[in-house]
Design a protein that fits this description.
This protein is of the alpha+beta class. It contains 8 helices and 6 strands.
Length: 264
């Protein structure tokens, strides 16, 4: 039942997740063939590995860490659009990324719709639409709106162009690469200070709402979706505009899996 009514354009990838409103646990996931093609395994295996919390990040550890922090900062936004550099077939066992060539990486535009209300199943749905884009599109967006490209990495002084990213494996470096030099340590210190400023408002909100019911916490999100309720996504602003949020889109979902596990 989870794959009914879910669709996207040919060539686009769709990943959907359903959250039980009361227990706040993940009850099901579904992906389409395009997600599986990017991951490098079958759709059923993608779902099984998600259920078992066995999904590697499609990017290097530094960029992945920044992506997680960005998700935390934007978890209450109705719609979020980002551009990232992913490793092809990232769920396959493969040689070290340091030996990978430029052809082993792709730029991906992904759009996540948070807390869509699935009235039929009485659950919240989180839908993510992904599409491989050209280096030229990535570069055009990076120049116009760098905040949505490889989010937060610019706070570490990483402002590489699309051309540089495809010819460098620096994004797969570990944090040890920063701590080994004075310049790296200075960048890390600036990074930490920047994160403290960005998370200050969220921490203050969490302290103010300590002990509040989940209905109160979710009210601002649900109020943002009066017309979504699994209806077609709204028209998106161009990612070339300076707005940090944005879009929808892949083909019918072909694999689904149900489970009960903590919300990631």
């Amino acid at each position: 039942p989870f794959s009914q009514g879910q669709s996207c354009e040919p060539g686009q990838a769709a990943f959907c997740m359903w959250i039980d409103k009361g227990a706040l646990v993940r009850e099901g996931v579904a992906v389409n063939d395009t997600v599986a093609a990017i991951a490098g395994i079958h759709p059923e295996e993608v779902c099984a590995r998600v259920a078992n919390h066995d999904v590697p990040l499609p990017m290097g550890p530094i960029e992945g860490f920044c992506q997680i922090l960005d998700d935390l900062l934007n978890g209450m936004d109705p719609c979020v659009i980002r551009y990232c550099k992913w490793k092809r077939r990232f769920m396959q066992d493969s040689p070290s990324a340091r030996s990978a060539s430029a052809d082993d990486f792709v730029f991906v535009r992904w759009t996540r719709y948070n807390a869509l209300e699935d009235q039929e199943l009485d659950m919240w749905q989180i839908k993510t639409i992904m599409e491989v884009v050209s280096p030229e599109e990535y570069e055009a967006v990076r120049r116009a709106n760098p905040e949505i490209c490889r989010p937060l990495t610019h706070m570490l002084g990483d402002d590489r162009t699309a051309h540089q990213l495809l010819r460098s494996d620096a994004s797969w470096d570990t944090w040890a690469g920063f701590t080994s030099t004075q310049e790296g340590r200075s960048r890390l210190q600036s990074f930490v200070e920047g994160l403290e400023r960005r998370f200050a408002a969220a921490i203050k909100m969490a302290e103010a709402m300590s002990g509040a019911s989940i209905d109160l916490l979710m009210a601002p999100i649900i109020a943002s979706f009066p017309s979504h309720r699994l209806a077609p996504a709204p028209a998106l602003p161009s990612p070339l505009s300076p707005s940090p949020v944005g879009s929808e889109a892949g083909s019918g979902l072909s694999a689904a899996s149900t489970e009960t596990s903590p919300t990631p």
